[in-house]
Amino acid sequence: MNEVDSHGSQLRRRYRRLVVSMLLVLILAGIQPVVWRLVKRQAQIVHARRTLVQQRADVRLRAEAMRDSLARNADTTAILEAAVPPIALLPQAVEHLELLADKYSLSLDIINIEQRSASALEEIVPAVISLRLFGRIETIIDFMEQVEQLAELTMLESWQLEPAGVPPGVVDDQAGDNYRLDAEVLFFFTAPK
Length: 193
Description:
Alpha-Beta Plaits, 2 domains, 4 helices, alpha+beta, rod-shaped, 193 residues
């Protein structure tokens, strides 16, 4: 009987092991979807964090590239700002014309200053300075060349040169060498922001 009992106890142990194994398999099969959902959520969180870190790194690189570009283009920007200054510097343009006239010993009269209208979308505002010069032909021509060489963006829009007498209030020994220049000088300015 001992043999039968021992054989029976072995069978029971095997059945218990089989039942326990089956229960473990069923429990693991039931837990597996929950575990996979948890793993999937964690993977999504890790991916989102990596993506966010990568985006921040990309933004830093772009910002650094923009700063470098701005630094490289600072000279160009300064040249453009000098060529097309803000409209508030219109008196400075008139002063440049007066200084040029003094440099060439010309008599300068500013006839009119007109700011042409620009639409709200335009960033460049033209201004016309109408002037009258009296002086020798050579100095008037030199003046005209210098106006076109000013740092500001300028253009002689219209001009008329004709012989003239001595301008009022000026004593000149060579009255026959005097000419009168009536001109409109177009300056370009940036619109106020």
